[in-house]
Design a protein that fits this description.
Helices cover about 20% and strands about 30% of the residues. By secondary structure, it is α+β, with helices and mostly antiparallel strands.
Length: about 350
């Protein structure tokens, strides 16, 4: 077994989460990694599965070369499987895949075949293990996420606004929706850890409006806080204009211009519900130590994303998740976030 630095407390925490996801003594599971995976996550996952009495085996892919022209980060689109039929068959042969690839399988082309085989995927974000220590499973959050997801599924429109100028309108007909709690809901499902996010992947031709990024909002791909307002104009799903003062707006335009048109399309839209997650943690870790899932999940954020959206048959590897503070979110006439504070069903009230 390849070794990495791990701690007993991490093994215990991972074992708790694996048990919540149904891993039991005697169960076969795959630890899916790649040559660039974080060694401590691989080692901790194997030991935690063995501690539970499960029967893990590893599928280790070679991280493919990046042909450029830019670095790829926080995409949710692992390229490690590369359509390799044998590897896909191997990971689809067990009930559970523990995914510790660098970017994860969430938007990968192979995911449909894996889930379609009845295999569930538990995606561990590429974070320092301490982050998982700080985010224990929260039963009340899981209950509120489930109720919020029920309201989302039955709604026709999501709208988000902010005092600084955000006003985005999303038609939810034919959208794929999800509520992530860090726990898989059943066979052939995927969950990411840490959890605490309710979101929708809109169908084509459903998103219009304006996103205004405010100081303190988070660009997860670049792993920095927004310093000056940046305005994104969205027409028929696509960002058609990026405007703002300062280098960050120019950096965003420059980076996205390296990709095809689908890089500008809407990926998913939702809000965070994890009370243990923090928006202010980025400065406390080196950039290599986090992948931003805590930022995606912090309570009361509204997140707008661009790029990959399998529900709209778009698979761009350019992906921006941007959690925003102090926004308000509405599902039809039901408000779930009020200027960055959970309300309504998201806060535990009846819809």
């Amino acid at each position: 077994m390849r070794t990495g630095n791990t701690e007993w407390r991490w093994v215990q925490r991972f074992a708790q989460q694996f048990a919540l996801n149904g891993l039991k003594p005697g169960d076969e599971c795959v630890i899916l990694s790649e040559s660039d995976s974080r060694p401590e996550l691989v080692a901790t996952s194997i030991l935690a599965a063995e501690y539970l009495g499960a029967r893990p085996f590893e599928v280790v892919m070679r991280t493919p070369a990046n042909g450029g022209p830019v670095a790829l980060r926080s995409t949710g689109t692992s390229l490690a499987l590369k359509g390799h039929a044998g590897a896909v068959a191997a990971v689809s042969s067990v009930p559970l895949v523990i995914d510790v690839t660098v970017e994860g399988l969430l938007h990968s082309r192979e995911l449909r075949d894996i889930l379609g085989a009845g295999t569930s995927v538990f995606m561990i974000s590429n974070e320092h293990p301490e982050i998982f220590e700080r985010l224990p499973h929260d039963e009340d959050m899981a209950r509120r996420v489930a109720k919020s997801h029920d309201v989302l599924r039955s709604s026709k429109v999501m709208r988000a606004t902010s005092d600084i100028g955000t006003d985005i309108h999303v038609e939810l007909a034919d959208a794929f929706t999800a509520g992530s709690t860090g726990v898989i809901q059943g066979p052939g499902e995927i969950a990411h850890w840490p959890g605490g996010l309710v979101l929708a992947f809109p169908a084509r031709h459903r998103v219009n409006g304006q996103i205004v990024l405010a100081p303190g909002d988070i660009n997860i791909t670049f792993k920095h806080y927004v310093q000056d307002p940046i305005t994104l104009t969205i027409e028929d799903d696509f960002v058609v204009a990026i405007e703002g003062k300062g280098y960050q707006a120019e950096m965003l335009k420059s980076y996205m211009s390296a990709f095809d048109a689908d890089a500008y399309a809407t990926s998913h839209i939702g809000w965070g519900m994890n009370p243990a997650a923090r928006w202010d943690y980025l400065e406390l870790y080196d950039r290599s130590q986090f992948n931003g899932t805590e930022a995606r999940a912090f309570e009361g954020n509204f997140m707008y994303s661009t790029g990959a959206n399998e529900n709209a048959e778009r698979f761009s590897v350019c992906h921006f998740d941007i959690p925003m503070r102090e926004c308000s979110v509405f599902l039809d006439d039901h408000q779930v976030v009020d200027r960055g504070r959970l309300v309504g069903v998201a806060a535990g009230e009846e819809a």
